[in-house]
Amino acid sequence: MNTRNRARASRRWTRYGDPGERHDPDERGDPDERDDPDERGDPDERDGPGERDGPEDPTDRRRGVHGRESARFTRTVALSNGVFGISLTLLVLSLSIPGGTAGGDLGRALSALLPNAVAFGLTVFVVALYWRNHNELFESFAGIDGTLFGLNVGYLALVALVPFPNELIGTFQGEPLAYAVFGTVLAALAVVDTSMFVYARRRGILRSEVTERSYRIDVARGVLTAVVFAVSVPLSLLLAAWTPLLWVSLLLVDVALDRASK
């Protein structure tokens, strides 16, 4: 090989490496050490359910639970508020002056409307109290699942039904059966409300702020309310005039227990 050829070969070996010097595969590095998947982190540990949804939303979508920031939860709350608002609005329909009432008869017409006005005031107080309790209930939830959604729909159906017994009380003044129907609806509301709270705790979707003490007090409130309203149903058949006073007393006790639980 002449000098020129040697120089060319030398340049090739310098660039590409001497073909006689084979590289040991071990010197290239262990393939397992190049990119250890363990060093990348476990995909499940990179972004856990609580980290994805934030500190207020420690729920797991795989369990069928939708967190507080999910569309399912926010739309459920919006639907609930809408039903309560419509129910309150419909109550005013029970306050109407008969058509064709002359000016001189207005005083008598307003006097005749007094029982309806009393029923209206009582029912507004009841619905407003249940609305407040419902808001506090959903504030205690870290999320919502299918069962809780179904229970809430049943609860809202009862809320939508409230104007009906209110109309009965105003129209059939002093009729025991009217109070019995109203008491049945209110007792059912208390049962469903408490059932949602108990179910959420057993499902593990109550927020950490709910202490054991507040949980027990709230359950006791719900049970007491349901029992008293249920007892008022047969009692109203005997003492219809005293039934509203019993309801108001119970609701005031409920407010006191609510403050004690905080």
Q: What is the element layout, followed by pairings?
A:
Elements: H1 3-16, H2 31-34, H3 37-40, H4 43-46, H5 49-53, E1 66-67, H6 71-91, H7 106-112, H8 114-139, E2 143-144, H9 146-161, H10 163-171, H11 176-203, H12 212-238, H13 243-260
Antiparallel strand pairs: 1-2
**Helix fraction?**
55-70%
User: Could you give the order of the helices and strands?
Assistant: HHHHHEHHHEHHHHH
Class derived from helix and strand content: mainly alpha
Radius of gyration: 35 Å
Count of individual helical segments: 13
Would you tell me the overall average pLDDT? 78
Explain how this protein is built:
Helix content is 70%, strand content 2%. The protein is built from 13 helices and 2 strands, in the order αααααβαααβααααα. It starts with a helix and ends with a helix. α8 packs antiparallel against α10 (163-171), α9 runs antiparallel to α11 (176-203) and α10 (163-171) packs antiparallel against α11. With 262 residues, the protein is mainly α. The chain has a two-stranded antiparallel sheet.
